[in-house]
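FYI - complex with S-adenosylmethionine, inputs then prediction.
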Amino acid sequence: MAVDARDVALKIINEVDTGGAYANIALARELGRRPLSDQDRRFVTELVYGTVKAGATLDWLLGHYCSRPLAKIDPVIRNILRMGVYQIFFLSRVPVSAACNQAVELAKKHGHAGTVKFVNAVLRSAARDPGKAVYPDADKEPARYLALKYFHPEWLVERWLARLGFEACEALLAADNATPPLSLRTNTLRISRDDLLVRLADEGAAGEPSRWTPEGVVCREYPALARLASLQEGLFQVQDESSMLVAHVVGPQPGEFVIDACGAPGGKSTHLAALMGNRGRVLSTDLYEHKLKLTAENAVRLGLGIIETKVFDATKLDTAYASQADRVLVDAPCSGLGVLRRKPDSRWRKSASMLRDLPVLQAAILASAAACVKPGGVLVYSTCTTEPEENEAVVRAFLAGRDDFALVSAGALLPVPRAEEMVQLWPHVDGVDGFFIARMERRREPV
Ligand SMILES: C[S@@+](CC[C@H](N)C(=O)[O-])C[C@H]1O[C@@H](n2cnc3c(N)ncnc32)[C@H](O)[C@@H]1O
């Protein structure tokens, strides 16, 4: 493996570590710029995602071999060490000697004689004696053990451990670390799912029908998305299976006026429009113009003319649309704790304070969105988190304050019905992104 692939990986890891870059975005940009072989692209991806995801565990491992505090080491050198230790401990197909040698080469390029010696000494000592780093006892320190073993922040593991117990918590953490399949939603206005599967196979993507939704396709082997002409032709939208369930629970009908209050980048707005047969009106609002541009682009690519995008603060939606919509969807801004498997760095950006702050915003958006629902209309609240403070608690608090809305079963409206009134999906149980969906209906008559 040429040093160049590791150098690209190092550049991205550095940007994530010191510049606050998102790993997936920086990776896509850097891979787009360079003529790397497919093998090198896969290696860079594995190295970046693995090193970023294993963050705190790598620092803990390094602490056993390096006497200097990591915070005092030059960031580039620190990240060379992290990449090296990731390969030594977690990439068994890379020979440890290669991991050490290439790290030393990187240190020569980015450091000086002293740092070269330092990197060499730390990594060779880790390679010689990997058993020196002993994980905490799972019985005595379960949260610390799971956090280090499965690369998650300890505060989050403590929370899930208390709620789910050891076994389920461990299964959830493992599911967060597994690579999710690519999941696509057929644009049923242009092609049937069966025909899309044939078309994808012709393009080198091995897909199978989703067991969750009638328009879903799951691909485990596929080329780079940019190489799929079927994407450019608007034959599908990339969307997780659990996210596809939301529009089914909204259940929009042709000719209706539907508001998607937090709509960008348009995964659900475009699904709603497709379910309406591209007849009626979907107003997709969001706080950010640049995100709404993506909604508009998706709508054009998929051939959906009924979607209108508008910058709007959803906490004030009722100032313009009171009692006007047949259905309103609130796919609320949330902690995203159900979708950690999608973005390797995201787990390190979360904090317990989000679970105190976000429900306040979620409640304000839900209240304003509710006021836009016509009597007899539908209000759906969804998130991509698993946390009750952002889910059931927001819905219950909303309903407690008013008797003009009633909770109805979201589970009964899923393509494959479930018993729960409010649906909570989990990566380790359901094999899809963690998602929450609740449906309420506004009574026709004041009570
Ligand atoms: C979970 S994402 C929505 C995803 C989208 N429904 C989809 O399926 O593609 C939440 C969105 O809420 C937006 N948002 C955050 N605060 C908002 C507010 N006060 N008003 C409107 N949108 C807001 C964010 O910009 C983000 O795009």
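The chain has a mean pLDDT of 96. Residues 262-268, 285-288, 291, 313-315, 331, 333, 365 surround S-adenosylmethionine (CB under 6 Å).
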